[in-house]
Amino acid sequence: MKKSILSLTAVSAAAVLTACGGENETVTMYTHNDEDEMQAFASGVEEATGVDTEVLRMSSEEAWSRIDAEHPDVNADMMWGMLHSFALVAENEEDMLASYDSPEWEDVPDEFVDPEGRWYGWSYWFNALAVNEELLEENDMDVPESWDDLLDPQYEGEIALPDPGTSGTAFLFVSTLMQEMGEEEAWEYLDELDDNVGQYSQSGSAPAQMAAQGEYAIGITWDQAIFDRIDEGYPIDIVIPEEGVGYDLDVAWIFEGAENQEAAETVIDYIGSDEGMELAAEHRSMVTKPDVDGTIDFEPNLIDYDAVWASENRERIMDEWQERFD
């Protein structure tokens, strides 16, 4: 039984792609997870629970735009893979998220689970730089060590950055700078950085691929996108800027009024189970279940990122971004 994930590059009326049929219960879901990992997760759910999945893959901002437009009749039962800051926005929307008390999450620290069971944090990830070592050497460019280094004229046109209008990875980057520098200085920084950006991509993972393929020397992206391409043999390395990087909790939730509520609850149970977390740990640097190790064997330099502040200020920040850079 073959599963496929539809990747959506723009908010549209594209139909959800049916992953498989048969007599099993089927859950429809939206996700911002990368296609390869979502294939593995969907297969894991089916093998462990018998629940089939229909999955539509979008970037974070695209997914939220779609959900916001469809609410209260969202065309999916659940979300598996979304920024925590969007969960905080969603929980304040009347009747958007269903409450479910899953027994499989009892040993996950309280900070990763909504007390009313409206969202569940299963992994977390961080911003990082993908640097193409061969391209840097060929062009006699230094390996950047800090956010400030990226403003150096030697990198003019050599940086790929996701667009915060479509990418949660990029919004994490922008909101991290604001929390590190203060808003005024962060906007000045982004204005200067724009001189060195060769392309703004829709996807948060795309800059890692662009750097891996030698299109750009540097990609501002997220950790696992880099590790995956290192594992594939590309000549790239990961750099965590010395100032520290922001991180975000990845969450899952069930939509209020879900057509397949019980099956969606089964999926939430699976995500929080030992089996589900161990599968997630094969694809993510860090998962939230204690004693389940992710893909990294070092402590990244993470700032004390404030997801609540990010959620409360997201709309204002995005309006400012569009005025400056669109």
TrEMBL record:
Pfam families: SBP_bac_6. Residues 1-21 form the signal peptide. It comes from the Bacteria. GO terms for biological process: thiamine transport. One of its GO terms (cellular component) is outer membrane-bounded periplasmic space. GO terms for molecular function: thiamine binding; thiamine pyrophosphate binding. Keywords: Signal. PANTHER family: ABC TRANSPORTER SUBSTRATE-BINDING PROTEIN, THIAMINE-BINDING PERIPLASMIC PROTEIN-RELATED. This is Iron(III) transport system substrate-binding protein. It comes from Salisediminibacterium halotolerans. The lineage of its organism: Bacteria, Bacillati, Bacillota, Bacilli, Bacillales.
